[in-house]
Specification:
This protein is of the alpha+beta class. The chain has a domain of 75 residues: Cysteine Rich Protein (Ribbon), CATH 2.10.110. Helix content is 35%, strand content 10%. It has a three-stranded antiparallel beta sheet with strand order 1-7-8. The chain has a three-stranded antiparallel beta sheet with strand order 2-5-6, with no helix packed on it. A two-stranded antiparallel sheet has the order 3-4.
Length: 222
């Protein structure tokens, strides 16, 4: 995947619309391109109807405010660009940061899309319910064409919030928001909200983990 755009999504960005919503999902625009505009609008409404009402991004609604808040939470700018990091104190830490985001962008980060009509029956990866043939489903390209979700089931494994704008990271076949994906690998500072990339912080975390393993090894079996 290429460089992720800033979290301040503009109205002319891919996936945005002026038809009553601050955002609509990728995957439906081909209907618009092929002049099936009424079907496009119908499918947009079908997708939105499957979401909890308080997260539907209608313009000037609580759903739009929810989206704006989740963009900042799930896609923290300091995780996306060194320009927003204030505590990378030397070139080594900056290199660690750049290597981390390059690897993440290559192997984990992607944007899902809505398939308006799936070609075969499949199981929802979240609720294990049935997605019938020709039903709408959210697809995650990193996990292949056989993996689908109900629109309301496309959520982060950790925080269980709807993955905002269908942006996700994948690890061990599970999907996460970018924030919680990063925290699978690096600790995050509670004060500045940046992840640690220093030798010292990583060494301390490794030492704590080793001590924990030693203690667990000598505890009697319960």
């Amino acid at each position: 995947m290429g460089k992720l755009v800033d979290t301040s999504i503009q109205s002319n960005a891919p996936g945005s619309t002026s038809h009553g919503y601050a955002w609509v999902p990728p995957g439906l625009n081909r209907m618009k391109v092929h002049h099936i505009f009424s079907l496009y609008l119908f499918k947009v409404e079908e997708y939105m109807a499957q979401l909890p009402n308080h997260v539907v991004p209608r313009i000037n609604s609580t759903g739009e405010k929810y989206r704006e808040k989740q963009l900042m939470l799930q896609l923290p700018r300091q995780d996306l660009s060194v320009a927003y990091c204030k505590h990378l104190s030397n070139n080594v830490e900056r290199k660690f940061f750049e290597e981390f985001i390059n690897a993440r962008n290559e192997i984990a980060l992607d944007i899902g899309f809505v398939c308006p009509y799936i070609s075969k029956q499949m199981e929802c990866r979240k609720c294990s319910g049935v997605l019938e043939k020709n039903e709408m489903a959210v697809m995650a390209p990193k996990l292949g064409e056989n993996c689908g979700w109900h629109p309301a089931c496309f959520i982060c494994t950790t925080c269980e919030q709807l993955l905002i704008d269908l942006t996700y990271c994948v690890r061990d076949s599970l999907i996460y928001c970018e924030r919680h994906y990063a925290e699978l690998y690096k600790p995050r500072c509670n004060a500045c909200d940046e992840v640690y990339f220093s030798y010292i912080s990583m060494a301390i975390m490794f030492l704590i983990y080793c001590i924990y393993l030693i203690i667990m090894a000598f505890l009697p079996n319960v």
